Amino acid sequence: MLLTGSMLTARDASHKLIVEALVNKADLPFDFDGQTIYYTGPTPVRPGHIVGSAGPTTSGRMDKYTPLLLEQGVKCMIGKGRRSAEVKQAMLKHHAVYLAAVGGAGVLLSHTIRRIAPVAYPELGTEAVFRLEVEDFPAVVINDIYGGDLYDTGKAHYRTK
Amino acid sequence: MPVCQDTGTAVVFLELGQEVHIVGGDLTDAVNQGVKRGYDAGYLRKSMVTRPFSARENTRDNTPAVIHTEIVPGANLRIRVLPKGGGAENCSRLTVLPPSRGHEGIVEYVVNLVDECGCNACPPLIIGVGIGGTSEQTMLLAKKSLLRKIGAHNTDPEIKGLEKKILDEVNSLGTGPMGYGGSVTALAVHIEVFPAHIASLPVAVNMQCWCSRHREALL
Description:
The structure holds 2 protein chains of 2 kinds.
Chain A: E1 2-9, H1 12-23, E2 36-38, H2 66-71, E3 76-79, H3 85-94, E4 97-100, H4 106-110, E5 113-120, E6 129-138, E7 140-143, H5 150-158
Parallel strand pairs in A: 1-2, 2-3, 3-4
Antiparallel strand pairs in A: 1-6, 4-7, 5-6
Chain B: E1 9-17, H1 27-41, E2 49-50, E3 57-58, E4 66-72, E5 77-84, H2 86-89, E6 93-97, H3 102-117, E7 125-131, H4 135-144, H5 157-170, E8 186-193, E9 201-208, E10 215-218
Parallel strand pairs in B: 1-4, 7-8
Antiparallel strand pairs in B: 1-5, 2-3, 5-10, 6-9, 7-9
Helix pairs in contact in B: 3-5
C-alpha cells in the first residue's frame, strides 16, 4: 500500500510515558482516536532536509503497551516484525491493522515525509512523539481485520523444512 | 543520509601492535571522542542509554563505544568499526550444549533461533556463530565473524560444511526478506571456532541485518 496522510511517531520511551499518563489519568497533548502510530526514531536532520533517515523499529517491544493504546482508538500501527498473540487479539477486537515498512529503507521512507512537527516529550530526542505528514509511504499489510498474518502465510508458502 | 536510521552501538575492534606506544592521552577516550565526532558530523542517531535497567537516559553522543582490544605482533593499530543495530542485536543468544550434541545440536540451535526471531533482525541475515571458548569468548567469536566479507567461508573444510548446512536449513524456513516469505532468509553463515572445555560445547549466535555496516582503517 502507499499511504498518504498523517501519522504519529512513538517507540519505547514514549510508549512508557504515554501509558503512565493514561494510567494516572494525566492529560496527553494529542488524541489517539483514529490515529496511525509509526514506530520509528529518526536520525538527526541535516540542514536543507525535512527529516533524517526514518525506517521502522521492531514493533514487538511495544506489544506490552499496545492493547491500551488500541482501547484509546489507535487504528493502524506501522513497524516491523511480529506482534504478540495478545496484540493480535486486541487488533481484532478494535478493528485495527498492523503494517510493516522495510527495515533499513530509512532513506527511501524519509523521502515520503513532507512535514515533521514535534508533538510531545522533546526531551526524548529521537524517541519523542512527532507528527508526520507523508505522501505515498510504502507499507505492507501484516495483520488485517480478518485475522490474517503475512508473517505466517508468507513463511508457510515458502517453507520446505 | 544513513541507509538505516538505527546507526547502532559503535562496536570497535582494535588490534594494537605490541610495538605501538600510544602517547598524548587515553586510548579509550580517543576512541569515544572519535565516535562522538563521527556521530555528530554524520548526523547519525544517538542510540545509547545509561541505566538500561531503569531510567534509560540517552547519552546524547552515542558513547560509550563497545571496545574489544587485542594485542598483536607488529607496529600498527588496526581499527575496525561495526555499528550494530538493536533489532539484530536483540536476537543474540548463547547456549552451552552437551558435547554429545555435536553438529546436529549446533545446526538445530541456530536454525530454531532464526525460526523464532529471525524476522525481527531484518532478513536477509548474515548469521554469526561462535563455537568454543568460555561463554564471553563464544559471544565475541560470533560478533567478530560478522567482520568477514559476506559469504566468505571458514578455511577449515569441516566448519565450512557446517556453515553451508546451517545456511541451507535456514533458507528452507521460508522467512524470506523482511519475513514476508521467501527462499532467502540468510545470505551467509560465518562460524568462528576456539577450543573448548572437555565438558562443554558453547554456541553463540549474533545476527547481522542486511545493512551489515562495517569499515576498517590501519594506522
